Amino acid sequence: MLKLRLSRGGTKKRPVYKVVVADSRRARDGRFIEKVGFFNPLLPKEKKERLSLEAERIKYWLGQGAQPTTRVARILGENEIIPMPANGNNPNKGIPKKERKKEGDEATPAAAAAPAAAAPAAPKAEALKAEAPKAEIEKKEVK
User: Fold this and answer.
1) Which candidate, 58, 26, 25, 67, places its Cα nearest to that of 39?
2) Residues 123 and 66 in one domain
3) How far is 44 from 67, CA to CA, in rounded Å?
4) 95-120: average pLDDT
């Protein structure tokens, strides 16, 4: 199966990635079919040199059945080559666990509001209980 994926280059702690079309069975930095772009995550997002993609070749390989990895799909979606993928956005990922728990404690008032939302279901149950004695009365009348 063909994959559009990132192949790492550069030195230790200074990564530079090539966007390549490769067989999924090959090693990450191993043999590839074609280089279709590059990505330098160390540069600011505003810089033009951070990312370069050959859109025509990428569309060709997608047409041939190549599947992008989640990271490459996100990059292609940001550059409007393919539709933006729905999943993969985790806003809490960069927040330390302790702070996430604090945010969770703040969310408990919302959880306290949930039983209030369940309260409208309670009158329905009471209405069913009120109907049950009527059914019993009708049974008694039939006898």
Assistant:
1) 58
2) no
3) 27
4) 63
Residue range of the domain that includes 8: 2-78
CB 12 within 8 A of CB 80: no
Residue 90 resides in a domain: no
Q: How confident is the model over 119-133, as pLDDT tens digits?
A: 555 555 555 555 555
Beta bridge partners of 21: 4, 34
Residue ranges of the alpha helices (H) in 53-120?
A: 55-63, 70-78, 97-118
Residue range 53-72, pLDDT digits in tens: 999 999 999 999 999 999 99
The token duo for 14 is 């200074």
More confident of the two residues 119 and 100: 100
Closest Cα to residue 50, out of 38, 34, 58?
A: 38
Contact 33, 22 (CB under 8 A): yes
* SS3 at position 141: helix
Q: Residue 62: inside a domain, yes or no? A: yes
The answer to whether position 39 is within a domain reads: yes
Burial label for 58, CB within 10 Å (0-12, 13-18, 19+), is buried
Indicate whether 12 and 69 sit together in one domain. yes
Higher pLDDT, 21 or 89: 21
